[in-house]
Specification:
The protein is α/β, with parallel strands linked by helices and 107 residues long. The chain contains four helices and four strands; from the N terminus they run αβαβαβαβ.
Length: 107
């Protein structure tokens, strides 16, 4: 029983997590996503932060790249403003559809 608990705990500590939240129209998105990334990495996770992309690309390209990144993850981490973003809502629906785990930022 102890071995199973330790094995499960290690798996939970080393998950690949995608951060989803409002980027468009959010002047503080880089700081917000960076803070979430720092927190999740401190917990021992691999983190996919979609804000690394270059600026000036077409919106569709950002969505396509985000979905490709999300497809590689175990968990979607929803920032508190995720419902205000069309892209984050779409990412959430994808995550639900394929059975990814979900975590939410505490307000």
């Amino acid at each position: 029983i102890v071995k199973e608990f330790v094995k499960k705990k290690r798996m939970e500590e080393n998950m690949k997590i995608y951060i989803a939240g409002k980027i468009t129209g959010n002047p503080n998105y880089k700081e917000q996503f960076a803070a979430a990334e720092k927190k999740l990495k401190a917990e021992g996770h691999q983190v996919i932060n979609p804000t690394w992309k270059p600026e000036g690309l077409p919106y569709k390209q950002y969505i396509d790249m985000g979905l490709m990144e999300l497809q590689q993850c175990d968990v979607i981490y929803l920032l508190s403003d995720w419902k205000d973003s069309k892209g984050a809502r779409m990412e959430y629906i994808y995550a639900l559809t394929v059975g990814l785990k979900e975590r939410r930022e505490k307000a």
